[in-house]
Design goal:
This protein is an alpha+beta fold. The protein has helices at 58-71, 112-121, 136-148, 153-160, 164-168, and strands at residues 14-27, 30-42, 47-55, 74-75, 88-92, 95-101, 108-109, 126-132. It has 5 helices and 8 strands.
Length: 169
């Protein structure tokens, strides 16, 4: 996955908590309870990231998750109707998410975890299908992986040494 450093100083980031899990570790004296929070952040304009925070209290886990998500922001290539530029499959672990380009007026057709990622990335028209594992964390990371692999027609044309009109034909 390509990692580019994104300047977040003047970005207005929204956050959504996808899941909060209570994790228990059995030790000699009893059980240690902790919480893990899966948080997705995005600016609604082509940048999105996910992070995992772990702590003994829920608000602290959410804060740590948000900080982790900001560190892992990726850029998403969008077209003129705020959809993905081409169909793609994102994979993470045993989870795969199919991302399909959609025309204006389609809306976001996606299951829970993938929907959150698409909304925060600023995508308005997309069809997705979660394949394989339905683990929320893996589905979120597979969606982000798929979105980060998208290329604009300009990038493809430049890489192939052709014009955009030749690529789109």
């Amino acid at each position: 996955m390509k990692r580019t450093i994104i300047d977040t100083t003047n970005m207005e980031l929204n956050e959504k908590v996808v899941s909060i899990k209570r994790v228990t570790k059995v030790v000699k004296g009893g059980r240690n309870m902790r919480f893990t929070a899966l948080v997705v952040v995005g600016d609604g304009n082509g940048h999105v990231g996910a992070g995992l925070g772990k702590a003994t209290e829920i608000p602290e886990a959410i804060r740590k998750g948000k900080e982790d998500a900001i560190k892992h922001l990726v850029s998403v290539a969008l077209d003129d109707v705020n959809s993905v530029t081409h169909d793609n499959i994102g994979k993470f672990g045993s989870a795969s998410v199919l991302l399909k380009k959609a025309p204006e007026g389609t809306g976001i057709i996606a299951g829970g975890p993938a929907r959150v990622v698409c909304e925060l990335a600023g995508i308005k028209n997309i069809r997705t299908k979660s394949l394989g594992s339905n683990n929320k964390q893996n589905v979120v990371l597979a969606t982000i992986e798929g979105l980060s692999q998208l290329k604009t027609p300009e990038e493809v044309a430049k890489n192939r040494g052709k014009s955009v009109s030749e690529i789109m034909a």
